[in-house]
User: What shape does this take?
Amino acid sequence: MGIDYLSPDYEVVRNPQRCIACRVCERQCANEVHSYDSEWKVMKSDDSKCVNCHRCVALCPTHALKIVKTDDTFKINANWTNEAIGEVFRQAGTGGMLLSSMGNPQPYPIYWDKILINASQVTNPSIDPLREPMETRTFLGKRPEKLERDADGSLVTDNLPPNLELSVPVLFSAMSYGSISYNAHESLARAARELGTYYNTGEGGLHEDFYQYGPHTIVQVASGRFGVHKDYLEAGAAIEIKIGQGAKPGIGGHLPGEKIVGDVSRTRMIPEGSDAISPAPHHDIYSIEDLRQLVYSLKEATNYKKPIIVKIAAVHNVAAIASGIARSGADIIAIDGYRGGTGAAPTRIRDNVGIPIELALAAVDERLRQERIRNNVSIVVGGSIRNSADIVKAIALGADAVYIGTAALLALGCHLCRTCQSGKCNWGIATQRPDLVKRLNPDIGSKRLVNLVSAWQHEIMEMMGGMGINSIEALRGNRLMLRGVGLNEKELEILGIKHAGE
Amino acid sequence: MKRVYVNEKWCLGCHLCEYNCAFANSGCDDMVKALKDVQIYPRIQIEQGNGINFAVNCRHCEEPLCVKSCITGALSVQDGVIHVDQDKCVGCYTCILVCPYGAVMPGPTGGVVQKCELCTNNSSGEPACVKGCPNRAIVFEER
Amino acid sequence: MQKEGAIRIPSGCAISGIFSRSGKRMNGEPIIQSISTMHDRSNGLGGGFAAYGIYPRSRDLYAFHVFYDSVRAKEECEKVIMANFDVTIAEKIPTREMPEITDEPLIWRYFGLPFEKLLKDTRLDEKEFVARFVTKVNTEIKGAYVFSSGKNMGVFKAVGFPEDVGRYYRLEDYEGYCWTAHGRYPTNTPGWWGGAHPFSMLDYSIVHNGEISSYDANRRFIEMFGYKCTLLTDTEVITYIVDFLNRKQHLSLKEAAQVIAAPFWSEIDRLPPEQQKKLTYLRNVFSSLLITGPFSVLLGFTGGLMALNDRLKLRSMVIGEKGDMFYVASEECAIQTIEPNIEHFRAPQGGEPVIVTLNEGVDA
Amino acid sequence: MNYVIIGNSAAAVGCVEGIRSIDKTGSITVISDEPHHVYSRPLISYLLYGKTDREKMKYRPDDFYEKNSVTALFGVTAEKVDYEAKKVVLNNGSSVAFDKLLFATGSSPFVPPMEGLDTVPKKFSFMKLDDAMALEEAIGPQSRVLIVGAGLIGLKCAEGIRGKVRELTVVDLAPRILPSILDEEGSDMVQKHIEKQGITFHLGTSVARFGAEKAELKNGETVEFDVLVLAVGVRPNTALAAEIGCKVNRGIVSDEHCRTNLDGIYAAGDCSESYDITEDQYRVLALWPNAYMQGETAGIDMAGGNQLYDKAIPMNAIGFFDLHVITAGSYAGEAYVTRTEDTYKKLITKDNLLKGFILIGEIARAGIYTSLIREKTPLDTVDFELIRERPQLMAFAAPERAVKLGGAKA
Assistant: This one.
């Protein structure tokens, strides 16, 4: 072995005065950072193995542990940062692409944080959600082209294309069984049912145990077509065609063979141990008219009973692409911003490809309105919705609902260590190791998800009430309720909002 | 009556219950002070092996063999909780001989036995093992 | 300061309406008297009236009321009017000089019908043709503003207190079966004549007291259907919504009200399945036309009047009836002052449309 | 209903609590020839050792009789039972009427004839509180004590007084100590441990004759002593029962409801026999837990309830000078033995069942083994390899554990 050029990014700091050597840290670390020295009767830590997932910190009963960013540094260089140098070292050592997971962590502008929400003062009253109804129910899907009346003049109501009804405009975004654990899926499924919303299978198929959650499931059809069969399509409330995802636009997926075991293999309908490779494009979609064919194939296959979602990554030309999708027969467009999470992505792609969801959403919503087709399709956006204010802003910019992935995982215990690709998730989420999977008890997981979304719902209601709005549909596209701060003219123009003070 | 139930499906074998038990019964309000550099004698104990883990503590049987067998009368049932009067106990270990769960054990000094009393004998309130279980593998419920 | 159209201007207001079911024609005195009672609800930055049945001799012709900022605008606009309409009358709207009313624009009216051949060529129905024409003038001809475009009805509005506006327009000389009035309390406008209310589109006229919070959601949606919100006022967008739902989507006014001031889901979920289905359908299909925030609206249309409050009833509005007369106003006193012997006062519930129409057979 | 209990120890208390779990009002009379509130006889050695005191020795709180509405007659002996007239005649001339009667008469020390025994001035049995108090009175730091009998009673006595006397010698006819509960290896281990405390054993021999402050043994040795404790054995007190026609073998014969062959007459505790499921025969199982459970079973049956005492096994938990010994069952079968310097463990299996075990030194969770014997758990339904290593619930199948620990229904 030659020289290890890399030094650990994080250090495990143990307060020896507080440590009682109960060894919980040791037992709970799948990376084997901690060990007990029976000779010296002390706990030791190997920083180089630490991924900073905080499992040990969270479980240490005496709060004896913390993890700090190392202050070991190469010579300070604003251009050749420690990260940049370290990555070169790593690649010079391995010859491989850099892999990482979860969303883009780079310091690009976060537009949500440069948008402010309005409230009523004097001229119209704010509405108290504790006293008055405050509605967050919403529907996703197409609206009929025109109204019809039957012979006696009453309105025909069954010409409505299939819709998804949401009691709160938040859905759990696609995360496949395989990339996340059975218990994570069960938590999402149960929470979706309790909340009156939907979770999404991702490209991992639908485990037989979860067919019972079908009415709250969006089944995904992605380029690898894993786990897709008739019953699967019919089991879901909607079908999502995944073209791309924000974390890695233009890139396919790769779930290594070691994760394709047991139920994962069966659910994906591929042999155990074989790599699950999702091609970068759908090889039957090289153009927009091909998409239309797939949309209608799926509609045919499910007797026009399921809305079809087309999910794309937010890329430069997103407005035009969305317009094409809206005309393809799709009922819902899902747009995933560049901060969206993933179980594994090439680091360079994750950090450099795609555009912010805020701008993509504003551009798409406005474009579809200009083309007068906004009513033909619903818009769901994801790619780092972090809190209820982000949701309010997204809806005011024009979204019908939002997808949350990372936030949902955080609720389940994810600490964003961004090491999903290792398969050793200490929180039982991004792993298939039975001893780790069991760390996520769906009784707890689903409850935490329900708590999170319910809390956000309350906050959304509170903010809506403040604006004098008592129904989420009156917020949708209501950009007057937003103002920008610290944004330039172009950004304001794209977002379609005024600057604060205007 | 509320009892402690174990669901081994969710037990991680982290042993926190043991430490929380030892702390709750230490009479000390600082876990570090209570447990640092000492051998712990918890009243709940983890069994583990082959990827299976579970905690065992007193079941508070309705027909408690330990109480019936106790030669001193130190073991008694109080509001459904099997209580040991350590003052009375002489450490004959007849209860250890009969408990089908292996849930009665010698105390730290050996002269008397100890067992889970659902934290009715300390200031924890709810059983400390349950409160501290990170994965709801032990619950305290009426069933 | 920016005027209406350049910036969204919310405002509080007073409204009043009088309607005779039997088609009895009244001059403008009572409605002026009624609205002046609520003087304090206006601030002098706008007042106006809509009257139905006032042009019986030209009842089949579109009556365009137009403001011109300049002679040039007038010439430009008239060129377009004449090119599209067979205009039988073009005249200045009679006014009375008053110190309270200043900065008057040129105020003209035209009676006419679209040229038949032209209409046929566009393949539009007549109303749509007229609506598009009005939008075109208002968006494209600088300094010209069509503020009334229905048949046998007219809108009269100005910057000033409504009672002064009424006198200015000599409303005592007009007789109609339905009158609505508006006194305005905008919060940040210099006051512009076109920005005063009522807002009118074809024979729909709207007076409105409130400040809707759903404005931009409504505006951005309705603009997908060919409307252009040039004034950025609530009244404008509400008018377009009513026009869209009632005239274009053929919803009844009641159904339109169920979209605009939709019942809460909690109410809908309690209804029998058929009603539930219908209301859910309407809310879903026209979800972006739900209007939230406070409003009380009087919608005038040929042969009828609809009063509607927002679903939480965040603005006052009462109705009173005597014989076949129907009165509605922001405040009860505005009714009492013109009809002290009201038989029945009532405050309609939030979201409950109150619609009155001419008795059957009445040809007003 | 009149319930009468002759005796006032574990079986009697079990009977009272058994009756009262069903019948809250019937009259209960306890007849005790000792003048004491109910106390735990096995504790007399701990009393001498200083580990307990008279107050703590009380087996039940002071208000036990009152709370259970029991008429306790202390210091009174039952002379005779008149089965026809349904009454117990007392030595004070009065009698107590009964509908249901329990013999909980216990056992008495058995002293074989020994030459010169009457010449020994300070000789004691070691069964009752009064015995212990008399012994304590008689000994002092210079005492040389001879204990005849290396069984449980003799050795517990030895432990109890070791710290209070100068010399302590134990003599037993048997070649090893505790022969009734230990095998040879176990006896040897315990003996060595006890010897470390300065106690001398003379085994495989007996006292040929007692002389002045000395005992001559049959093997020719002489032991000098000034206090003698006789702990050769005990005999069940069965006379009263036998008189009225109860079937008596070594003890009074009672069935799994603790009924004797006579209607309304029950027997429980050291005076009775129970069915040892490890030996498949009736035996006297003179053990505190068995006595309590027999008494309780009898009480419940007397009051019209239904309880079975059908899991009796011999079992013992005993310790000498901090060396703990737990044993149960019978030792006939295939043995599995592990031994370390400080611990000894023997498991005996037969016919796919655990039949018995001996644990010395390491006794943790022994009850799991006991339970396998009591419940006759077929060993092929558990992971015997695992449980052989140490008692653990892991050896049971998961569904079984779910019942035991998870509240699942069996």
Summary: DSSP finds eleven helices and 18 strands in chain C. The mean pLDDT of chain C is 93.
